[in-house]
## 1
Amino acid sequence: MAGVLTTCPYCGCGCNMELQVAGGRVVGTSPVGGHPVAQGSLCVKGWNAHEFVHSPDRLTGPLLRRDGRLAPVSWEEAMDFAAGGLKRIAAEHGPDALAFFSSAKCTNEENFLMMKLARAAFRTNNVDHCARLCHASSVVGLAETFGSGAMTNSIEELAQADCIFVIGSNTTEQHPQVAARILESVRRGGALIVADPRSIRLTRFAKVHLRHRPGSDVALVNSMMHVILAEKLENREFISARTENFEALARTVRAYPPRRGEAISGVPADLIAQAARTYARAKAAAIVYSMGITQHVTGVDNVRSLANLAMLTGNVGRPSTGVNPLRGQNNVQGACDVGALANVYSGYQSVTDPAARQKFARAWGTDELPGQVGLTVVEAINAAADGRVKAMYIMGENPMMSDPDIRKAEKGLRSLELLIVQDIFLTETARLADVVLAGASFAEKDGTFTNTERRVQRVRKAIEPVGQARADWEILCDFARRVGCEQMSYAGPEDVFNELAELTPSYHGMSYARLEPWGLLWPCPEPGHPGTPYLHQGTFARGKGHFSPAEHRPPDEIPDEHYDLILTTGRIYFHWHTGSMTRRTNPLNRESPEAFVEISPEDAAARGIRPGGRARVSTRRGAIELTARVTEDVAPGVLFIPFHFHEAAANLLTNPALDPEAKIPEYKACAARVEACP
């Protein structure tokens, strides 16, 4: 039995693992010693990462819709139909009648090729991926305040922090190896502050638990900063030397004394003050957050507030400090880095910058590239429903589970003249497609992923793709050739990586050889550069850090007489994202086989809902029925539903209202009601 070193396909931790191969099949997964994140261990999803590879549900060849049904066809027929259809629609309606969805589950190389296909072959910037639905707020908020939207420090450094402030992240369930470093800090005597509407596992180890109402993050953090300034706990030297716009911040937070913070957030004023003192007095304090911060109509303001808190206390640009957004998928960071976004090329080079357009046009042998920002994921779906987008090419994304307001997503997808879906399973989205292209799993191809701490790592092919399935990079190159784009001919993924590294300043010093064995953290600007564990040392990426004060704004929907509760959504330990992989993994599905809603004992009793009974949850967009878990882990007035289960899809309920700047939907707070099923 052979072992092949590769990178886990699940969360943004980026653990390395060894796939055990026998008889051309992946038969097991093992941890590897020495890896800086995994450190010889894996979470339950990592231990079972091989299980879905040989699922009987795998797509083993292309499908084409005939007489209303998807039927197997040859690659030649499927590709000719798909490529010919896109060319025809672009010619008839213009390039912006097309939209391309890339994937945080695919490699850097494949995401680079998808954005190149959209821009070089079809002359549209309508290319985006699910980062828009999870960390678009981080990219906007941290780029404005620090100059870079990335996690500032490495995962390893958390173990040495004197204080860690976790807000909007159920870290033990979503990023277990990051949680392990947090708990290592606690064992060393570090102080842990947890802000979360639910009692999560980390709260057992917290010095302070700030149980705030969903959507009150800005008020909570502003009140913490009010205390820090009132008690003169700020780092005046850092503020003076390395930041700008401090007086504007001071004026704003002056209006948020802890009593006002309590009135808005529900957190007692004395706990707000205690958290503020604990964080400000630490020698090295780190902030860790995830989608509980970003998935709001105020997501960018939430991120700005955390950046303000870090700068106010000088906790940026040093080891074991910083502002650390945890990316939810294995390659969200990388897909953003290589330009699978509507507004930037790789390395966050703006499509509206003539010099950047000229640089990429020259490299790709094209005369001109489009200069207007394209449509984001949600905007493209809405444009399809309105008839403005006529065709979509979706690689490795499942908007029929991941988009807010799934009914509208379905309307948009069904309105298309042509829907091409490239995936490894017949997902809820693929079932609506006109053409389905069978891609390869992580075990069946080479490439790179970039984890949440900016570590670029190798993905290594362990087996051949199942049946007639093909690696996604091969499909994209074949597709480009059929539409006349000769600039997408490569010997393999390494060849693609060399091109993206040449065009991407933060990756410029990387090569496959240099990524052995555990990868490099960008920025790595030149060959021989060792990579960068933490950012903003000495100076911020933008020069001086910019204080960006934010005022509290309520969620788009607040409870009323008809919808009297707040619904929030998230992940659980045993499942991941839309469930397409974990729910085809028997050990994981056995542990958590069905959808549920968490409800407080008080709210359950008032509505006659029994533990384990069936409940109906409804919002202004729809209703679902699922099992009730009556628990004190949620506060009265709050409901929690995980979004992994298609049979009771939480995103039938969620609010598609967008942050005006990042265009991210408000998954984390909407008005809802619940009743016992008859």
## 2
Amino acid sequence: MKTLPVLFNTIAKAHPDQVAIVDRERQTTYQALDQRSDAIAAGLKAEGIGRGDRVAIWLPNIAAYLECFLAAAKLGAIVISVNTKFKSHEMADIVGRSRCKALILWPSFKNIPFLDILSEVPDGALENLQTVVTYDEGERAPELPSCLAHTKHVALAQFEGMSWEGQAVTEEDGLVVFTTSGTTGKPKFVLHSQYSIAIHAEQVATHFGFNARPCRLLQVNPLCGTFGLTQALAGLISGAAVYCVPVFDGKAAADLLQKAEITDLNGSDDMYHMILKNTSADHDFTRVCNAGFAAFNPTLGDLVEQAEKKKLRMMGLWGMSEVQAYVTHQDPAATAEIRKRAGGRLISPDAVIRITDPENGRVLPLGQEGELEINTPSQMACYLDNEEATTKTITPDGFVKTGDLCVMEDDRSFVFLARMGDVLRLGGFLTDPVEIEDCLGCFPSIHQAQVVAATTDTGSRAVAFVILNAGEVLDEAAVIQHCKDQLAGFKVPIIVEAVTAFPTTESANGIKVQRAKLRQMAEALVTTRKL
């Protein structure tokens, strides 16, 4: 039986006194984690939460997050993962639309004004909520805002010592919902089952050797996203120690890496950059066995090489909420140029991939670019309460359409090129914007570039947004001529616009450039210039 409670209980019984979580110097053993999650499960059940009910967890990376998550898993409830960066309109939409019956939060957490955010939620928006469970560390219980006035308020500490008789859950039961980080429309709710979460945690742990050596995981990625949760659960079903970081700080993370002798970490390129920047010159990372990263910041193109100077061998990862994180990774023994690429080799021996023509769905041969489709044990069950979106994403033969432009190197590995929505169709040809961006980046005054397509009277054309080097002034004509000298005519931008920064959005898995916003800006420029 592949369920999270079964896998966790096995390891908790085998290693009861082993440290499971370290949260700001406070250690929780596997036995204590098992007992605390049992008590919370009993408490939630007493509050009317049952199998299939939805429970929102709105907490930072602390031990209580994992205790509550395991409790929900034991109860058969579905966790709605709520990003700590969400504001009032997002809370009203996600908690309300998912019909959560309970919300768990830390009202007095110093870094995030949870109650101020909730005070801006309109009354009635969270009408399905029945219970609000508050975590505290000795603070006085605060008054809840009016949007929660209809709910029962319970302190998480009240569940301590409650008796849990256990409850059978099945592999098909829902376990967790991740919210997509789209830049248009409302986020979709990606529902994963007990099986998909459990089997992936097990396969990740086995692949990276979490269960074959002393393993200490640095938990910098938010637990509310698949990037963070996958790592933590893989650790907890293999006997590893998970070091929680409630609020990421480069220096604190660098100090903890050294002090705790961390063996494994995964994070965004920005996180690694801040860690390396705060690492002393004489410190190296020879103890680190695995260092996976996701590339979100295009300005950090030499990060892998910089890390290697301190003996940290970073490797690119690929994943998405629909199939979870750590689905593939680059070979840590490969060159820096290969290791910095997204994509890589499949971790699961049961996963199957293919590349299809985005226009007609025809399966393409090796070496041709197209949409990546994947069938893997770690894939979602569906989009919660959205059959139409599910049908569009999961093919009749069970493959998930990723929306990623990729090319397969062999039947077990691929290279990620771009999101399909970011791919440009210029002059009738699919064009990867990175090719144009690289060309622009070679121009002396340009520090960074992003390219999108806009509709003109002569068809879809490239529009470039650039960030200039300090003290430089944009010479648009010279930049366009530079591109003409290097690229086919249909790839040359018709507009080059200087900006001070690119619009970004922050998701649970990292900061991403809002290309949809750039496309809106490009269309406005085309209209203004009457092109």
## 3
Amino acid sequence: MPQLAPILRAGRRDVVAIALGLVLWPALAFGAGRPGASHEERADVRAIGQRLSGCVGREDPACVEALLPEIERMTGAGVTAAYARAHAQLLRGQFDEASKGLLAIAKADAAPPALRQRAGSLAEIAAATAKATAGMERRLLVDGRFEVLWTPGPDEVMIELLEAVLARAEAPLQAVFGPLPPPPIRIHIYPKVETLAAVTGLTEQQIRTSGTIAVCKYNRLMLTSPRDLVLGYPWADTVVHELIHLLVTRRAGDAVPIWLHEAIARGHEGLWRGVGPDTLDSDEIAALQQARRSGRFIPLAKMSPTMAALPSQEAAQLAFAEVHYLLRHLLRGVQRPLGALLDAFAEAPSEEAAIERWAGTPRAQLLAGWMRSLRRGDDLPAAQVQAAAAHTLQFRRAGGGDRKPRGPEAGARFAELGDRLMALQRPAAAIIEYRKASAAGAPDDVWMWTRLARALHQVGDFDQAEQVAASALQRSPWHPPLLLIAGMTALDRKEPKLALERAESAMWVNPFDGELAALAAQASDALGDVTAAARWRHRQQRVATP
């Protein structure tokens, strides 16, 4: 499968993610501070507070629930136990119960102010999630190890594809990160970015500005439906990216810094399709080369507490490229498993201590070496220096209208004339105008290459159409319209396997296009796979249904 260019997913600890143990501690200390509490009792409370903080940091509801009897014995059935129980309910997906319990704590005069504030914030999130998931469809996937929730309607066509991705991802992820948490791992598909904002505590402005389309938090994966973006987005890589965040959190707790969390998830999100952490994609290379020429990189400190707070999609994309390059730098220089690094974070008292324990080298020295390598452009292909600018996501407007994909400004007149000629069924004349548009200043515009490849395909020049499409896919391997015409061209050139790969690649970005399913069916027929062809035709009918 051609490599997709993952765009800006956000599985990081979001803007409301304060270290929960710090707000629990005042309540535990409050219980231990009652008259007559002995030194030994206070020490016990500290110990249980640390254990509870670890459970919450790992977002492990079973761990929290196991501590409830001890908390109640030490502090009584008061606000501390009530908070722990409500938080476990939030992690379990029991949103109505969690909302009621948290709201009661937020209004309790006996609760410390920090705990009331935190409970109030989480109560809003729990209530918003209860509202968002009310009436959602549910299905267990991969023998019950995952549970997906989605809004009834078109998003259902994602579910079969989602199960295939998860099934392919399990083994390679477990080889790196260890066993999956107890089932089911919950995945929520929300219809719009407004919903994602309500259930995460992010703002719509942060989501649209940074290109955040998914979050892993509160022991679940939360994705925006590709329907809420004009061209979709690489949702298949995204769900694996978020799953990695969950695995890292469960193994190492909340001690892993955001830059490393994102580096690990970004570097391993392609494992399900055979792409390892050593491979940078074309968008990442383009972003790093541009930053190298300008000398403007994003410091790691600017990435915390969330990349969703970065000022633009381009900035967020550069940040992801930097940390992916950093992960590659670390893995090449340290011959120890990544799991050992996560275990070091779970045990060490600080970020510096954890990294040095794993690498045998001080953190500052490792990062200095990474920055030197980054500024020199080590291992970045020279041929990619003039690659196209980073691609950004196109959200649908809040009012419901689509943003019309923009063509090249410099060649707009020629492109418009070419479009008119295509509408008049004159593809040969359109080819001339599209080439003029490209020569006028848009040599790397993906829409122009897609138009040109389609026109060449229509005149029957399949070899030239393949050359144009293949060249453009090197720069824009995730672009669904380009993948569609590239797949059609491959089929006409008697390359059905390549055609099927391109159709599937496009569906990992936009699963709602009936033309892609039709292409996959034709390619399967050509490969002699009658069963698969029937399945794709059934999918085509479902996608075409309003």
